[in-house]
Amino acid sequence: MIHTYEDALEWIHSRLRLGIKPGLKRMEWMMSRLGNPEQKIKGIHVAGTNGKGSTVCYVRNILEQAGYSVGTFTSPYFEIFNERISVNGIPIYNQEIIELVNVIKPLAEELEATDLGGPSEFEVITAMAFYYFDKNKTIDLVIFETGLGGRLDSTNIIVPMVSVITNIGYDHMDFLGETLGEIAFEKAGIIKPRIPVITSVEQKEALEVIVERSHELASQSYIMGVDYFIASHQSTELGEQFSVRTSKQQYDQLEITMKGAHQVKNASLAVKVIEYLAENNHIQVTEEAIRDGLKQSIWIGRFEQVSFNPPIILDGAHNPEGVRSLIQTVQVHLQNKKVHIIFSAMKDKKLEEMIELLITIAASITFTSFDFPRVSSAKALYDLSTNTHILRNYNEVWKEAIDQKVSELTENEVLIVTGSLYFLSEVRPYILEKFC
């Protein structure tokens, strides 16, 4: 029996020793023992390489503005572990974590004695989420974000009202495949028979896989640029303004405060998801709720300016696609600023490509590291950077790297801390406490 929050987290994190364990058999076993809570939830299932968190945020905020209570299951967390299971953006309480662990822990131990083996950390957390959202009868809908891929992800036991695929890019290639088509196949694994899929995927190779899979399963597909369109996009000082056109309606001059063309795509995808749910009588929503929900959406760590004096921006560009989005946003919103970058990332990412891209917008780049499995050392990152036209250095201690660079900032300069989302989750509270 677990009695404290600290012991509950310690037990959950102890499951990390089992690594990543793709497959659904262990989840199905646990759900069966719990009375199949995943079958009783009105859900939305979201997969994709980048943009999942932002899209979840937009959809959740619109639904909240329409008067619904919305659960979310997301990863990773930024400030506290409990964020992964939230209701209306509010993490569940410590006591609820303890109670959930005491439900799942005996099952995990029993499962470990079977041929299936024990559940991974992510499987444990996913099981906790399904159980919690089923038992909490005040929740109207739940949005589940996949952890890795889709087809074999532990969230993929749900049969949702709609499936959502944000985009496809090169990430987790050791698990998902080497080509865009192979990666798209894994993401498209969330598509269920006769359950529509809505996507903002643009690459022809990836989109063909998604469309083919939807046809095989008699699932209607809604595609950006075919079934819904972004129009009249312009960046503003406060964010982005744009219009979305569907076969049913034109949503003119929508506004978001999350910056970047990629956020316009995520927000437009969210609008189409909401429109589909409303058309099929899953929800009732006004255009006002859509507008207010989008405008009020904030997702930390996505081109987030956490300090204005000194100017510090956090952005979770953890793969090449994320870095390209960051570059586009910098080019639009920081045109007249000199940009300095602090970067840390995992060993299994396409590090050389990411570094080469970041250097194109940087006056200087500092490589650093932090305490986490699979993280690259600062020296290893430095050795991958061959461009001698900008100032490059490294410091294995990230707090020292930040303090040093902040002390050097002068007028019209900005510091961007980027890379791993796990890295930013450590950096953000430190910056807020020290510089804000």
Please sum up the structure shown.
This protein has 436 residues and is α/β, with parallel strands linked by helices. The chain has helices at residues 5-14, 25-33, 52-65, 94-112, 121-135, 173-176, 180-187, 204-216, 261-279, 287-295, 320-333, 351-359, 378-384, 398-408, 421-435, and strands spanning 43-47, 70-73, 85-87, 90-91, 141-145, 162-165, 197-199, 221-223, 228-235, 240-246, 250-256, 304-308, 311-315, 338-344, 364-368, 391-395, 413-419.
* 3D shape: globular
User: Helical stretch count?
Assistant: 15
Q: Residue ranges: pLDDT <50 for 5 or more in a row?
A: none
Residue share in helix: 40-55%
What is the overall pLDDT average? 94
Give the termini separation. 41 Å
**Assembly annotation:** single chain
Search tags:
UDP-N-acetylmuramoyl-L-alanine:D-glutamate ligase, 40% helix, alpha/beta, Protein-Tyrosine Phosphatase, Chain A, 436 residues, 8-stranded mixed sheet
Structure characterization notes:
With 436 residues, the protein is α/β, with parallel strands linked by helices. The protein has 2 domains: 5-295, Mur-like, catalytic domain (UDP-N-acetylmuramoyl-L-alanine:D-glutamate ligase, 3-Layer(aba) Sandwich); 304-435, Protein-Tyrosine Phosphatase, Chain A, CATH 3.90.190.20. 40% of the residues lie in helices and 19% in strands. It has 15 helices and 17 strands. It has helices at 5-14, 25-33, 52-65, 94-112, 121-135, 173-176, 180-187, 204-216, 261-279, 287-295, 320-333, 351-359, 378-384, 398-408, 421-435, and strands at residues 43-47, 70-73, 85-87, 90-91, 141-145, 162-165, 197-199, 221-223, 228-235, 240-246, 250-256, 304-308, 311-315, 338-344, 364-368, 391-395, 413-419. The strands form 3 sheets. It has an 8-stranded mixed β-sheet, with helices on both faces. β14, α12 and β15 form a beta-alpha-beta unit. α2 (25-33) packs across α4, α3 packs across α9 (261-279) and α11 (320-333) packs parallel to α12. The longest helix is centred in the N-terminal third of the chain and has 19 residues, at 94-112. It is globular, with a radius of gyration of 21 Å. 47% of the residues are buried. The mean pLDDT is 94.
